[in-house]
Amino acid sequence: MIVEREREIEKFVPVEYWQIRALVRTQELKNSRTQEEFWVELAKYKDKKAEIHKMEEAKKILEILEKGEYVVADIKKSERKTQPHPPFKTSTLQQASANVLGWSAKKTMSVAQKLYEQGDITYHRTDSFNLAPVAIEAVRKFVGDSYGANYLPAGPRIYKTAGKVVAQEAHEAVRPTHIEITPEKFTGQEMAVDEKKLYSLIWRRTIACQMAEAIFDDTKVVVSAGKCDLTANGIVVKFDGWKKLFVKDNEEFQSLPEMTVGEKLNKEKVESLQKFTQPAPRFNDASLIKELEKKGIGRPSTYAAIYRQDGGFFGRYCEWKTSLDGDAE
Fold first, then answer.
1. What range defines the domain where residue 190 resides?
2. CA 323 to centroid of chain Cα atoms
3. Considering the domain boundaries, does residue 134 fall inside one?
4. Has residue 266 been placed in a domain?
5. Is there a contact between 35 and 295 (Cβ–Cβ < 8 Å)?
6. Which of 76, 82, 121, 219 is most buried by a 10 A CB count?
7. Where are the alpha helices (DSSP H) in 169-312?
8. What's the DSSP call for residue 171?
9. What residues act catalytically?
10. What is the C-alpha radius of gyration for the chain, rounded to an integer number of angstroms?
């Protein structure tokens, strides 16, 4: 897999393209509505999908946008619901700690081992999403008591593990042994910094998996200016649900102002950004674990060994990748 990815990267030829966007502002109305500005990005030019590959083309479109009258051409709204992720199994715990904490698989398993030995979490080498009924009951009680009944789904969420039954399936998903012990209840003397970070990740994922869905309003606005159609996408959180536990991790939501079709907008500025297509990235801890699992290679007990920095294959690969990145600077 790694060799194939490297070959793809070597063969890749970057293609130049230009992103064109405009900063627009709503006009003041008689009801004293506050003026609000937001970015719209070129989507169509002369009724065709905008694919700008040369500076000359970009300049021509910028001239049109500089002179154009900006009018709201279309507004589409839709409700979107997102379900919580299942509790952690070994591979997803390693992926999350790599993405959120920047840890290697080896470090994740080392810290998890300490938490397990201290009795803070269940066994951390598992292929299962299953939670014991008593654990589900405890989580649901915690959610209801801490956040209110509206944060609880009608019934328990049951997560099933896809694929064949293996030895690690006999274990539960990775979860705190005592749901009521929140990460904030640990002091520096009771738990090391790294242990608290991983415990917090596991605790939040476990609690969230039994919470209600999050509900969003998605809005897509099309703004016409001369021969150009520009678009903006906005998101409004109607109910945070399970996302309540991930406030710091949430993506930045762009909230669009209220508008009507046919409404004119003020242009603040237009700009073009030169960009180049990128090859598929080299594997890191999280992406390689995901690919290994997808292809059925390895088990929870072997992932960390594959990633060993002191002689493991991926460890040597990381050293080589780091040297390449250093040469590129």
1. 90-208
2. 28
3. yes
4. yes
5. no
6. 121
7. 193-208, 285-294, 300-306
8. S
9. 123
10. 25
Task: Report which residue type is found at 105.
Answer: A
pTM as predicted: 0.76
Place of tokens 């046919």: 262
Looking at the structure, do residues 47 and 67 belong to the same domain, yes or no?
A: yes
Could you tell me if 76 and 233 are in contact, meaning their C-beta atoms sit under 8 angstroms apart? no
What would the pLDDT profile of 194-222 be if each residue is shown by its tens digit? 999 999 999 999 999 999 999 999 999 99
Query: What's the pLDDT tens digit per position in 255-290?
Result: 788 899 999 999 999 999 999 999 988 887 778 777
Eight-class DSSP state of 212: P
Helix axes 90-100, 193-208, angle to 10 degrees: 120
Strands (E), the chain: 16-26, 37-45, 48-49, 70-82, 214-225, 228-239, 264-276
Considering the domain boundaries, does residue 84 fall inside one? Answer: no
CB neighbours of residue 16 within 10 Å: 12
- pLDDT tens column, 92-138: 999 999 999 999 888 999 999 999 999 999 999 999 999 999 999 99
pLDDT band at 1 (very low <50, low <70, confident <90, very high): confident
Domain count, the chain: 3
Q: Is residue 175 within 8 Å of residue 202, measured between CB atoms?
A: yes
34: Cβ contacts below 8 Å, ≥ 6 apart: none
d(Cα 264, Cα 224) in Å, to the nearest integer?
10
pLDDT tier, 163 (very low <50, low <70, confident <90, very high otherwise): low
Q: For residue 190, what is the domain's CATH number?
A: 1.10.290.10
Q: Tokens standing for 14?
A: 């970057």
Tell me the DSSP string of 10-63: HH----EEEEEEEEEEEPP-TT-PPP-EEEEEEEEETTEE----SHHHHHHHHH
| Rounded CA separation 193/274 (Å) | 42
For the chain, what's the residue count?
329
Q: Is the Cβ–Cβ distance between 110 and 195 less than 8 Å?
A: no
3-state secondary structure of 189: coil
